[in-house]
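Ligand: zinc ion. Inputs:
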Amino acid sequence: MRWSLLLALAVVLGAAAPAAAQLPIFDAHIHYSRPDWDAYSPERALSILAAAGVRRAIVSSTPDDGTLKLYEKAPKSVVPFLRPYRTRDDMGSWHRDPGVQAYVEERLKRGIYRGIGEFHLSAVDTAAPTVRRIAELAAERELFLQAHVDDVTIEKLLTLYPKVRLLWAHAGMSASASTVGRLVERFPKLWVELALRTDVAPDGALDPEWRAVFVKYPDRFMVGTDTWVTSRWEIVRDYHRAVQTWLAQLPRDVAEAIAWKNGERLFSVTAEEEQAEKRSRPAH
Ligand SMILES: [Zn+2]
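Predicted complex:
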């Protein structure tokens, strides 16, 4: 009886907890792709992120116009990455498609992008022509590559293209905490985002192996949502509520690094973005 009362009180207090108790979030994995455009206007999509505590987000989209729609409205909140997919059909063939290479080279002329990706790739295709060219462009322009690949493929990419900084999407989706820790130790140009990795905190309790890796390499991890289908936009807020729960189980400095400081450091707002933000939001 007493327990249930305490529980009810905790739920009420939890629900009423001020937003200030939450850490600001840098979300390293957002898409605003063609099917999303009709369901959510750019303003609505940006307000969903803001309501979830997301201060800034890496955005990439199929096609890239989706990213530009958000970036134009909020240049200080969106970190644009150029996705090498004109349509979803490019997903399986982009790595050897000269048309994709031309698309990427043309779009990069805008000069706004901080990375190329998210892309999918198999270990056997890491040296394919379009991958080579994209890695070359990334090295020249100091862009990140955001790769949704397994642990074998990320290791090959890091070895083949040692000048390029890699952002490993979903921590390889199924790679274990110890595998991720080993790769982060070995490759100083590897950063990792944790979108969809519910194994980090099953049932809300931070997994001890992940915790050990986060505490050892606090400057190498970021959180992310992955709005890979339109319905994901509905859960952004709940998703980040769950993220805040496990972040709160880390030492404060580690939690802050993973929540937003790593993203802020790696992708600091440019002078052009400061100016553009002022133009897009004139003072009243
Ligand atoms: Zn994705």
